[in-house]
Amino acid sequence: MSKFAKNQWYAAAWLAELGNTLVARRILDEPVVLFRDSDGKVVALADRCPHRLVPLSMGTLVDRGIQCGYHGMVFDGAGRCAHIPGQDKIPPRAEVRSYPIAERYGIAWIWMGDAARADLTRLPVIDHYDDEGWELIDGGYQHHPSNYLNIVENLMDPAHTTFVHKMTIGNPAAKSEPVKMKKEDDYIVAFKWLFNSPPSPMDRQIKDFGDQSVDRGQFFYYYIPAVSRVDIITIPAGLEPTEENFNKGLRNNSYKFLTPETDGSTHFFWMHLRNYKIGDKEWSQRMRGLFEKTFLEDREIEMAMQRSQEELGVRQFVGLEIDRAPTVAIRMIDRLIKEEAKDSGKVAA
Ligand code: FES
Ligand SMILES: [Fe+2]
């Protein structure tokens, strides 16, 4: 059974990375090469020449597709062999696997499973992307040398902020707030409200609240298997908590897209949307720096955990109450992988 859910869309690359170059990336433990074909469409092929298994990414981009750097076979965006130097006959097995790609939200999304099932309606949905009155910071990428489930747990766990992020976004008051949880079919959300409190120092830099108190909501969504959204809302104290009112307050939506690289490493893509300081590039620059630093703090912890887990062959020895939401998220992913295995068993039978 695969360790990963394959019939899913995963972020493979930022579209901005894919100019006139070949991008080699290991995804769900398979080598993939991404590039734009002559029409400018992003394509993804298995990064192995079928001749002597040399990575195609060591070759070059040519008019008709990608040319192997060893003996010059050319493959088009669909993975068909278009040319063999010095030979007219193209053997039937001279082809490479091509993966479905969807271009949306500035990202090339890849479908690593059964191509016949690649379903655009299942692409992640990013609220307010391209909406007027929302400002985007995108292009974020970090390589995290840790199993992606460690990162899923981290992203569903508001409790660590106080300790891991002392130097960045940490907030001592967060320590004692109770976290609630809600589970739906394809996502889970852990959330907490801090009612009737003074605005945070950051919120004061954004808006003049005078002596007004605020309600502050923090929602940690995880859409199974690969998308995290942290929704932070500040509204005047006592305002009814509706979507409409949330958008009238200060709102931060931080998205992370986790793409397993191997069993022990993860591509961590991120973007951020806010409904204030529109067009303020300086503020965006500052936020980008803060987020990068915050995610590196998590990375260091996840990396150290990974080392211990590999050494001991276990993930943890004891469970705490704060593990509730992360544990549910992991179970949902686990179930998805099992269902896929069952499904593909049926198809094979
Ligand atoms: S290894 Fe690619 S053409 Fe020979
Ligand atoms: Fe964190």
Automatic annotation (TrEMBL):
The keyword Metal-binding is annotated on this UniProt entry: yes
Descriptive protein name: Vanillate O-demethylase monooxygenase subunit
The keyword Iron is assigned to this record: yes
Record keywords, A-Z: 2Fe-2S, Iron, Iron-sulfur, Metal-binding, Methyltransferase, Monooxygenase, Oxidoreductase, Transferase
Listed GO MF terms: 2 iron, 2 sulfur cluster binding; metal ion binding; methyltransferase activity; vanillate monooxygenase activity
All residue ranges annotated as the Rieske domain in the record: 9-110
Alphabetized PANTHER family for the sequence: 3-KETOSTEROID-9-ALPHA-MONOOXYGENASE, OXYGENASE COMPONENT, IRON-SULFUR DOMAIN CONTAINING PROTEIN
EC number from the UniProt entry: 1.14.13.82
Species of origin: Nitrospirillum iridis
Alphabetical GO biological process terms: methylation
